[in-house]
Amino acid sequence: MNAGWPVELAEGDIVLRPIRRRDQAEWQEVSRRNRDWLRRWEATVPPAPPGRAPLPRPTYRQMVRYLRAEAAAGRMLPFVLLHQGRLVGQLTVGGITWGSMCSANVGYWVDEAVAGRGIMPTAVALAVDHCFRDLGLHRVEVCIRPENRPSRRVVEKLGFREEGVRPRYLHIDGDWRDHLVYALTAEEAADGLLRRWHALRNRPPYDN
């Protein structure tokens, strides 16, 4: 069982909470409206081997069922992102591994209508602080396509290290795509990412 789940994380009008079946209409509306904005970065199903039927894309309910099962098993923290009470994105802590590794990865997307307002860096900081301080993980990584400058800026602002390239790492937008690996360990974030993010935002403009 996952002792760190369910959990709700909040900072001001930004909230991360578990994804729910009843989020379906709002989630689908945001996803549909942002289809062109997100297409280049969304995971896709690779072609089936010869002689096999292609795998269908899961429905919303199937996705939530899978995410909740993974969360209950301690392998995932599937959040939706709320801003001022409205669903504006999703953040998932996945690949949680215990034992000698104690690591996880983070993936996220946000509504184009609220992009660039500091919402996603705040959400990532909330999630990573929870992973380090409450769950006891040691390492968190984020894998991002090199072309995705807005997503790279999110983790760079928070102090993630760029570790290198994973060639043809994930099937995205119809093909296998290279990804940059960004990582952070608990020792590197001992002061807390949320505190670090607030300090950065509060600097005078000429210091940024």
Automatic annotation (TrEMBL):
SUPFAM superfamilies: Acyl-CoA N-acyltransferases (Nat) (SSF55729). InterPro entries: Acyl_CoA_acyltransferase, GNAT_dom, N-acetyltransferase. Residues 14-187 form the N-acetyltransferase domain. Pfam families: Acetyltransf_3 (PF13302). Belongs to the acetyltransferase family. RimJ subfamily. PANTHER family: [RIBOSOMAL PROTEIN US5]-ALANINE N-ACETYLTRANSFERASE (PTHR43792:SF8), GNAT FAMILY, PUTATIVE (AFU_ORTHOLOGUE AFUA_3G00765)-RELATED-RELATED (PTHR43792). It comes from the Bacteria. This is GNAT family N-acetyltransferase. The keyword Cell membrane does not apply. Keywords: Acyltransferase, Transferase. Its EC number is 2.3.-.-. One of its GO terms (molecular function) is acyltransferase activity.
